[in-house]
Each structure stands twice: as structure tokens, then as C-alpha cells.
Specification:
518 residues; flat; transmembrane helix; coiled coil; DUF4097 domain-containing protein; Toastrack_DUF4097; transmembrane
Length: 518
């Protein structure tokens, strides 16, 4: 139930400040009608209930003729249907005026943007005609459409030529539709290059080097050939004319340096598909450099000797075996990296893929985010493993020094010899049957150690759970303490052993030192 005062307040809110005089006139009229109805015995609630919504009455007042009709009506209510019709028509007129004003204001800006885009398309067409000897289908069609739109925008400024401009616009539109049909039927909307095959030979086995970069999808393989052959490269697939010229001139001073299918704004409408590259490397040849930089691809690399081994891959898988190098660098964002039976000082950077390295000789450094690293049978002076939230597993290896750190991932080291440091913040640490010096540091995650051999070890945690399982036949003196957690130490009565000691402590977590049971 609504009073006239409440109704009038809502109606006033629907009027703009500059129209408040009109509102006051309408208010007087409604109050007058209310007084008449009250004299006739009607209630205030009945009168207000028959009135049209305040928004509709306010909209009606913006149309002068309808407002006059409403004010002079003999009935005690304003006709709802008439108010609605006036409101709709008034809103349409307002919207038309707004759009017209906005177009007049924005037309120069819109025209500028269209001219800039048209200029880019024309540059695209000219560049592709010059370098690829190909008429770019989609840019040509878009250019014709943009010309038609631009002519329509400027025709209001050229009143005497409007018929001519309309004719030109229609002609450009018809031509663009014809070209769209033609390029679609002939499958030339996208530039796909041409099929091409080439084998590039180097002059000598001495100081030979390969460097290959591509933003297209590439399958790469290496093949070991006779020591009497020369290093060479075979490439086949669909390529742009400009890239074919690069391939023809790729060999220089006994080096092959190729960069194909570079992604740039002028290749937006180019699709060449997957290509294949095979490197033929004579047995016993030591390359100066072997570099691959790919956006997408699959690599199978075998039997390579080089001073520098460098792989940079965004997405795709790498399988490498029998790689001998002074230095190795592998970067892979999303693919899997598998390396077997190789020798080099290697740095690996992986975002979310899987890294598997087995049977490798040389220093190793792995930087990861959330992937999985599996390392087996390594022989290294230094191993550095850093991972954010992934999982690192090192087994059956020898190193002078290991540093494995994570934020909230898992660090697992088994049957490994050396000075071993494992640190984590919130993740899990597992040490099993290792030899040497052992240091385990964890923030709030669980720490588990399973040990048969005697080791010198320190284990510390802030609030994480610590569990140490020790073979009682090889028992050593283990000291353990926790400030607020639960403590159990089955080796508390073992006599001191100056050579082998294990120190376990946690600030708030539980500590359990248990006898290992087979």
C-alpha cells in the first residue's frame, strides 16, 4: 500500500533537476485529482493504486503533446497504455539523438583507426607480394571491405559525390565477396607456402656447427653416419618463399645457421604446417656448436659430440641419448625431457613437463616449477635441484655435493652417496638408505628418513612431523627433541658414538625415532 506522498517522491526522483518545474505542475494536478476522488468517497490508497508507475508518467511529460493530454484528462488517472507508448517513443528518440551525437564525435577517431588498419593491410599485401610472390587473400578482402566502410563514413563531408561514393562502395563490397568465394574455393585464404626438399652439406668435419630456430611445428632427428661423410642437414616440408631463400643460403664458413617461420605480425595469415629436419653427423665428429630453438616440436637426438649443446623448446618432447658435450643447456616450458647415457655439465629449466635423466656423467642443475624430475645413476661433483611445487626423485647416484630445495613440492633421495642437503618449506622430504653427510630442513611439511647404514645427519623442522627409521643392528647415537610436539626415541639409551651422530629437532612438530623392522 502506497501513499500519495510516497508516490510523488518516486515521481520526483524520475525527473531531471532542470525539469523540476514540470514536476511541480504535475504534482499540483495529481493532488487536485486526489482531492476530488476523496470527496467522492474513494480512499487515498485506491487512487494511488490506479495511477501509472512514476517512471512512465515522467517519460510522458517529456513529450509535450501527450503531457498536455494527460494534464487535461477528465478521468482521475493517467492512461497507462498511452504513457507506455509515449515512453517508448521518447526513449527511441533519445537513443537516436545519442547515437547520432556519439557518431559525430567519434567519427574522426573511428576513421583514424580504420585508416591505420587499412594501412597495415596494404603493407601486408605489398610485403607478401614482394617477398613471397603471393596475393594475401584475407588481407586483400579486408582491405576492400574497409575501403567501402571508409567511403561511407566520409560521404557526408562530400555532398555532391554521394551517389558516386555509394556506387564505389557497392562495387568494392561485391568485389570483396567475389574474392572471398574465389579464395575459399581455391583454398588460398591462408598462405601455405610450397612443398620443398633440400639437403645442405658442410665442407668439412672440422669446426662444423649447426644452429636451427623455428616458430613452426618441427620434427627433428639426428643420424650418425660414416666418419668419411661430411656433416649435412636435410629439410623438407612446406615453406614460404623467403624461408626457402634462407635455406638455399644457410651454409657459411662450415656452419649452418637457419631461422625459419619466425612469428611476426606479417605472418598472421600464414600456415605452413609441420616440417622435418634431419642432421647427419659423421661418427667421431666434434661439433663446435649444436643449437635448436623451437616453439613446437619433437626431438630425437642421438650420438652427438659437441662443445656446446643448447636446446630451447616451448612445447614438445626431447629424447637425447649418448650426448657428449662440454656444456649443455636445455629449456622446456611444457614438454618432457629424457636424457640417457650422456656426459656433460648440464643445466635444465623446465616449467611443467617431466624431466628424466639416467646414466649421466657431469654436474647437473635443474630449475623447475611444477613438473616431475626423475634422476637415476648420476655421477656428478655437484647436483643442484630447485623446484617450486613439483616432485624431485634422485636414486642410485654419486655426488660430492647435492642441494635439493623446494617450496611445497616433494624431495625424494634414495641410495645416493655424498654430502646431501634437502630443504623444503611446506612439502615432503624423504631420505632412504643414503650414505655420507645428510642434512634435512623442513618448515611445516613431513620429513621421513629410512636408514640402514650409519650416517652423520641433522634433521630440523619448525612444525612438521619427523619420522626416522633406523636399523638397530647399525644403530648410532640419536638425539631428538621437540618443544611442544610428541617425542619418541627408541635409541635414547644407545651409547655415544663420536664418529656417527644424528641430531633431530622440531619446534612444534612430533618427532619419532623408531627401530626399522623388516
Amino acid at each position: 500500500m502506497q501513499t500519495m506522498e510516497e508516490y510523488l517522491n518516486q515521481l520526483k526522483a524520475a525527473f531531471a533537476e532542470e525539469d523540476i518545474d514540470d514536476f511541480n505542475e504535475l504534482k499540483e494536478d495529481l493532488l487536485e485529482q486526489l482531492a476530488i476522488c476523496l470527496e467522492e468517497g474513494q480512499t487515498e490508497a485506491e487512487v494511488v493504486a490506479r495511477l501509472a508507475p512514476p517512471e512512465e508518467i515522467a517519460a510522458d511529460y517529456y513529450a509535450d503533446l501527450s503531457l498536455d493530454a494527460a494534464i487535461n484528462a477528465k478521468t482521475s488517472v493517467v492512461p497507462r497504455e498511452k504513457i507506455q507508448d509515449v515512453f517508448i517513443q521518447t526513449q527511441k528518440k533519445r537513443m537516436q539523438r545519442f547515437i547520432k551525437t556519439a557518431l559525430n564525435v567519434l567519427k574522426p577517431l573511428i576513421l583514424f583507426v580504420l585508416v591505420v588498419f587499412l594501412t597495415f593491410l596494404l603493407m601486408y599485401i605489398i610485403k607478401e607480394l614482394k617477398e613471397e610472390r603471393n596475393l594475401a587473400g584475407i588481407p586483400t578482402i579486408l582491405s576492400l571491405l574497409l575501403l567501402a566502410i571508409i567511403l561511407q563514413l566520409v560521404k557526408t563531408w562530400i555532398l555532391k559525390k554521394q551517389k558516386l561514393i555509394n556506387g564505389l562502395s557497392m562495387g568494392l563490397l561485391a568485389l570483396s565477396l567475389f574474392m572471398l568465394l574465389f579464395f575459399s574455393v581455391t583454398n588460398q585464404l591462408m598462405y601455405t607456402g610450397r612443398q620443398y626438399y633440400k639437403k645442405v652439406n658442410l665442407a668439412s668435419n672440422k669446426h662444423a656447427a649447426f644452429s636451427f630456430d623455428s616458430d613452426a611445428d618441427v620434427e627433428i632427428t639426428t643420424v650418425e653416419v660414416s666418419s668419411t661423410d661430411k656433416p649435412s642437414l636435410m629439410i623438407k616440408g612446406r615453406f614460404k618463399e623467403s624461408d626457402i631463400q634462407k635455406i638455399e643460403n644457410s651454409s657459411y664458413q662450415n656452419k649452418i645457421n637457419l631461422t625459419l617461420d619466425e612469428e611476426n605480425i606479417f605472418d598472421t595469415f600464414t600456415r605452413t604446417g609441420r616440417s622435418e629436419v634431419i642432421f647427419f653427423i659423421p661418427k667421431g665428429t666434434i661439433l663446435d656448436d649444436f643449437h635448436l630453438g623451437l616453439s613446437r616440436g619433437d626431438l630425437r637426438l642421438l650420438d652427438i659430440q659437441t662443445k656446446n649443446f643448447d636446446l630451447d623448446l616451448v612445447t614438445g618432447d626431447v629424447y637425447a641419448k649418448n650426448i657428449i658435450a662440454d656444456e649443455g643447456n636445455i629449456s622446456s616450458d611444457y614438454g618432457d625431457v629424457i636424457i640417457e647415457e650422456s656426459a656433460m655439465n648440464l643445466k635444465v629449466k623446465s616449467d611443467s613437463g617431466k624431466t628424466v635423466i639416467t646414466g649421466m656423467l657431469g654436474d647437473l642443475s635443474i630449475e623447475g616449477d611444477k613438473g616431475l624430475s626423475i634422476l637415476k645413476f648420476l655421477r656428478s661433483d655437484n647436483i643442484v635441484l630447485n623446484n617450486h611445487s613439483g616432485r624431485m626423485i634422485l636414486e642410485d647416484s654419486e655426488t660430492k655435493k647435492l642441494a635439493a630445495t623446494a617450496t611445497n613440492g616433494q624431495v625424494i633421495v634414495k641410495r645416493t652417496k655424498g654430502d646431501l642437503l634437502m630443504a623444503n618449506e611446506t612439502g615432503k622430504i624423504v631420505s632412504e638408505e643414503n650414505q655420507g653427510t645428510l642434512e634435512l630442513n623442513n618448515g611445516s611439511g613431513p620429513t621421513i628418513a629410512i636408514q640402514e647404514n650409519k650416517v652423520n645427519a641433522t634433521v630440523s623442522s619448525q612444525s612438521g612431523f619427523i619420522k626416522w627409521l633406523q636399523d638397530p643392528s647399525q644403530s648410532v647415537k640419536i638425539t631428538a627433541k621437540t618443544e611442544t610436539g610428541e617425542l619418541r626415541n627408541d635409541f635414547v639409551d644407545v651409547p655415544d658414538n663420536a664418529k656417527y651422530t644424528i641430531d633431530v629437532k622440531s619446534k612444534n612438530g612430533d618427532v619419532k625415532i623408531l627401530e626399522k623392522v623388516e
